[in-house]
Please model this.
Amino acid sequence: MQLKSAGYNVYFEENDFSYLEEFLHENLFSSVFILCDDKTRKYCLPLLIEENGSLKGAKVYIMPSGEKNKTLSTLTGCWNFLLTNGADRHSLLICLGGGVVCDLGGFAASTFKRGINFIHVPTTLLAMADASVGGKTGIDYKGYKNIIGTITQPMGVFVHEEFLDTLPERHLANGLSEIIKAALIGDDRLWRKFLRLKKLPSTKFISFIRSSVKVKNAIVIKDPEEKNIRKVLNFGHTAGHAIESYYLHKKKILLHGEAIAMGMCVELCLGKILKHTNPKTALQVFLYFKKYFVLKRFSVKEINAFLRFMQNDKKNQSGRFSFALVEKPGKAVINIHASTDEVKQAFILYNNLLK
Model:
């Protein structure tokens, strides 16, 4: 199965890599390179090469895993690797990994020699359902999430569910957080499907991945440069990125989806305060996250730190916090502005609901 996106296709591989194999044969790339991290090098790269014989000669750059390594230093290392190995504008970079690899690899490819070809082969649920689709690339800088980057579409995205067999349970829940976001902003039937489950799924994710990609894909096609409606994809991310940035260098690092789950809960509280979110919806969704996800209570010191991070959020306008909020499952609104005091109130309400 495949879905058309903004100038490329998202391919859902079944039991092999037939779509990828056909893609590699149809395009006469001058050379092929693979970017992965130390974990995907061990657990995913052997399967990719075994199933695609033409990749046996591809040179591989291995970056250290984790959000803390989505930095200018790692990016420079990738550029140096491409330069040293003679990559040109007819080369292909395969980004094999989760959201960090897709973000950094896409940015490296989109800027090296003013842009070379790249594709994503996502290996985590989060990347399959969200991060690999849409063309956003970037790195973190001075502690701020994705503050430097581009919007550059890949030549294709190749989703192979078998890679999920290598993931621990925590990383599966991490990806489900973004799938729930997709349901809340654009697919009320998917949200009802989650409500009917007695527990979060631990296998057979492909239908959830497809539903999430369909939601994001439809939005990205309408607004690839995030001038308007694409902003709905930021639901949970203004608060969530601030939370994630704060914890990035703590001993217990939060995964992206864990931070976004908390960010969605905070923004549901904000929506209720600003009277943009139906109160029943806010409580229903909050209690769902409370049941299935680990939600942290925040101190006054932490909340003030989050607000400082939010002041540098890319979505802000004229110094005002800007949010995408959910009115009800399947319907979101954009360009909702809130004051510092209103956001503080949202964090306080969030804390109170965790009691």
In short: Residues 169-186 form the longest helix (18 residues). The chain has two domains: 2-166, 169-353. The longest strand covers residues 321-328. The mean pLDDT is 94.
